[in-house]
Design goal:
Elements: H1 2-18, E1 19-22, E2 26-32, E3 35-36, E4 44-47, E5 53-59, E6 63-73, E7 79-90, H2 93-98, H3 103-119, H4 124-129, H5 131-146, E8 151-162, H6 165-207, H7 210-225, E9 232-233, H8 237-246, E10 259-260
Antiparallel strand pairs: 1-4, 2-3, 2-5, 6-7, 7-8, 9-10
């Protein structure tokens, strides 16, 4: 009985140490006596023989890799600090264990060098305005390089671009000058359009003199609604000349313009 009990305990301990439970997102890469088994095991219950088997757990979930701040000198000699994040997942657990010692560290180092190399070839304005294209380019390079390691880079995102204080002031002055330029252009376009409309209005009034009298009346209506104590009434000089002629005098030339009554 004691020998049987000891045997049962040994078998139970062996089974407890041999049976592993792998989650749905995990795979077990098994080395039996140092040799890699043809297929990764999991998910579910996995039988591992103690002593002769060595297991490496690999997660198939999408993971993030923060790229440390990198000092970049763009093609137009602008110094800036860029941070990025890399999204990746393991698609071949066996390659991720066998082909590279530490696929996460290797991917991080390659992401840093690729970020400096790619962003150093573009101008600073493109770095700010064409981030989507740069993200796609970085993702393609990293994915091609990490494919032999069984790693799939799904996305690369440039998070932030930090500039020195002196460069920030220079860019602010440039933006201010650009806004002033646009304001002057808009103002000049408005003056040109107004002059064009006034020229067309003058041509219409020259063809139809009665339009000027109607404009006079409209001006009086606008003045009357404001409840002013002084009314400026434009008086045609032709009317005064008629009265001066009837009085026997000669009309005196006077400067045209509105008369205050």
């Amino acid at each position: 009985m004691p020998a049987t009990l000891i045997l049962v305990v040994i078998v139970a301990l062996f089974l407890m140490s041999a049976v592993k439970v792998m989650a749905e997102y995990e795979r077990a890469v098994v080395f039996r006596l140092g040799r890699l088994l043809p297929q990764a095991k999991g998910p579910g219950l996995v039988l591992i023989f103690p002593v002769i088997d060595r297991v490496v757990r690999i997660s198939l979930q999408v993971d993030t890799l923060d790229v440390p701040p990198q000092d970049i000198i763009t093609r137009d000699n602008v110094t800036c600090t860029v941070t990025a994040v890399v999204y990746y997942r393991v698609i071949d657990p066996q390659k991720a264990v066998v082909e590279v010692k530490n696929f996460r560290f290797a991917s991080s180092q390659f992401a840093q060098t690729t970020l400096r190399a790619v962003l150093g070839e573009v101008e600073f304005d493109d770095l700010l305005s064409s981030r989507e294209k740069l993200n796609s380019r970085l993702q393609g390079i990293l994915d091609e390089r990490t494919e032999p390691w069984g790693v799939k880079v799904t996305d690369v995102v440039i998070k932030a671009v930090d500039l020195p204080e002196t460069m920030q002031r220079a860019i602010a002055r440039q933006a201010e000058a650009e806004r002033e330029k646009r304001a002057k252009i808009i103002h000049a376009d408005g003056e040109y359009e107004a002059a064009t409309r006034l020229s067309e209005a003058a041509a219409i009034i020259a063809r139809e003199p009665i339009a000027l009298q109607l404009r006079y009346l409209q001006t009086l209506v606008e003045i009357g609604t404001e409840k002013n104590t002084t009314v400026v009434f434009p008086l045609p000089m032709d009317l005064i000349e008629v009265f001066m002629t009837r009085g026997g005098g000669k009309p005196k030339p006077s400067a045209p313009g509105p008369q205050a009554l």
